[in-house]
Amino acid sequence: MTLTVITYDVVMGRWQPDARGRLEKAAMTLYLERGFEQTTVAEIAELAGLTERTFFRHFSDKREVLFSGSSVLQERMVDAVRDAPPSVAPFDAIGLAVAAAGDMIGGAVERARLRQRVIDANDDLKERELIKMATLSGALAGALHERGVDEPSASLAAEAGIAIFRVAFERWVRGPGDVSLDELIDQSITALKSITQRAPS
Amino acid sequence: MTLTVITYDVVMGRWQPDARGRLEKAAMTLYLERGFEQTTVAEIAELAGLTERTFFRHFSDKREVLFSGSSVLQERMVDAVRDAPPSVAPFDAIGLAVAAAGDMIGGAVERARLRQRVIDANDDLKERELIKMATLSGALAGALHERGVDEPSASLAAEAGIAIFRVAFERWVRGPGDVSLDELIDQSITALKSITQRAPS
User: B63, B181, B195: which to substitute to probe chain A, counting the most A Cβ within 10 Å?
Assistant: First the structure.
């Protein structure tokens, strides 16, 4: 168990010492040490020094530990589109949504990297992540429809936003860590604009 | 069995009467009538008037009947990027790839609709489709890297291409059928350019 304790200290210092945070830390540690499939809720609760009952007050199952953030992320991004003044163009509203995602996640690169390692190691989790992204894209398109944006522009702007976020996020979690997520998102937006504008109509 | 025979005649007339084509027809009919999960390879072979052995000469499993086209699609799209003259800009090379996909699929809207109905009815198949799209995006980005396109531009152009294809394909299979896939792809490309250009830098 010494390794586990060190893992906590070194890489998980950002997490809060509340019950939910302790459960997250314990789950991530076990998912990385033993694999996601091999870890039970009982083991997570034990390592966190809490009961299974407490676990289930915070998460519906062990997968939820990895994906509970996704619904909050979606809410923030959709709110950013809804809250943008009516004069803001669709692609700019999507840009605000992606920036909101960056603000929410960007402070915790080590946590994002650990989560990514858990997901990369398991095909079911990778599929789950793709589904969350597809759902998010649909929700963003819906928020643009509410602003009066038609098809196919709404879906394309939403998909472009997901592409910008995904590419920036990948570079952030897999890169050397010298560039912030915000900066990588800005680079992605600029790059996408430049690519589509260089092409003759 | 009368219904089954009628289904063949009316909607699947485009398929070839070879063994592979007959297996595809039989599989799709059963997936729609009984559900994908509830259908066995033995039943597919029986309805096609062929043996299970013949089925497995053409498909590795019953899911492969729905997804064997995806690898050919990926090959065509990657080839289109590779074959584009060096002077062609990244986004235009991706446009050629999406057009190649349109050429490959665009002639068989009824087949695409039936396949989509099977996939829409099953979460595992929806996940599989998302994974195929993610793999395709990675392959297109790789083909752009070979042309000397850097990150994040290569990944963003590839993701933009997938977005264009996905949005056009959705409108095609779910729409009234009065617009061709090629035309919907052109509309998607134009819409994406317009969206990203309207936004101030």
Answer: B195
